[in-house]
Amino acid sequence: MFGYVVTNQEELKIREYKEYRSFYCGLCHTLKERHGIKGQMTLNYDMVFLALLLTGLYEPEMKKSCKRCIVHPIEKHPIVKNEMLDYVSDMNILLSYYKLKDDWKDNKNVIKNAGAWILKRDYDKVYKQYPRQAAAIREYMEKLGDCEKRVSDNIDEAAGLTGDMMAELFVYREDEWQQSLRKIGFYLGKFVYLLDAYDDLKSDIKKNQYNVWKSYCEEPDFRDKAEKILTMMMSECCREFEKLPILYDVNILRNILYAGVFVKFDSMKQENTNE
């Protein structure tokens, strides 16, 4: 993933931050148990949000404990384990595998191709267990590749592909909550794609690589336009989130959706102001 779906740590209470870290560490341990150390290496903050969201919605049985790890070799740290973390760890493997294959295709990066080869066996297992989600990611990569070849400057087309893919990953069960979960995943996916493109804009221009913002970046009100679009995506995402009957860790989830996702963008704006 991209690492933009994070908390605004300054706005979290100490108890809430510890709870968030217990899910992050729980996902790390789950990745190791299900997919080994290679699985741990795919850990990212974006998927912690999905684990928190699904846990809050379905309220599965949870096991809490304290464990040591390489990062915390002396002092034990709290971790959470539940079936949602199992699911999210598997989705993380699917995404990581396709991301590595895409990097190999685009840049012929031997290291990324080797990484994909290392994950292949785990990817095959997850693919068989979750064919709907795996097919969504595969289709996404194919359509995005076509979009880049055509050098499409249609913001909705490019970002919508990521949204469609994320929508399927957010649906753990095809039940009464699937419509709202799909919409949350869709709008969050569009937001993440556009923010990542905004973050990479200068580099992509310099390297003459595809970026959906290229056609708009010379406009005098470009930054304001980008911010309005990003805000609109998150407004729709939050609207759907508030429809769900979530009580558990709801303040952490709101912190991420209403403030945390904009931490990186605010940092980028500050850098541009100082230039």
Task: Give a summary of the structure in a few sentences.
The protein is mainly alpha-helical and 275 residues long.
Please characterize this protein's 3D structure.
This protein is about 70% helix and about 5% strand. It has 10 helices and 2 strands; from the N terminus they run ααββαααααααα. The chain has a two-stranded antiparallel ribbon with strand order 1-2.
Descriptive keywords:
Farnesyl Diphosphate Synthase, mainly alpha, two-stranded antiparallel ribbon, 275 residues, single chain
Q: What's the SSE blueprint?
A:
Layout: H1 14-40, H2 45-58, E1 63-67, E2 77-81, H3 83-107, H4 110-129, H5 131-149, H6 155-170, H7 178-207, H8 222-241, H9 250-258, H10 263-274
Antiparallel strand pairs: 1-2
Helix pairs in contact: 1-2, 1-3, 2-3, 3-4, 3-5, 4-5, 5-6, 6-7, 7-8
**How many β strands by DSSP?**
2
Beta content comes to under 5%
Shape: globular
Main sheet?
2 strands, antiparallel
CATH class: Mainly Alpha
Shape-level CATH architecture: Orthogonal Bundle
- Counting structural domains, the number is 1
Q: Which structural class do the helices and strands define?
A: mainly alpha
Compute the gyration radius: what is it?
A: 19 Å
- The amount of helix comes to 55-70%
| Unreliable segments of 5+ consecutive residues | none
CATH homologous superfamily placement: Farnesyl Diphosphate Synthase
**If you consult CATH, what is the topology?**
Farnesyl Diphosphate Synthase
Number of helices: 10
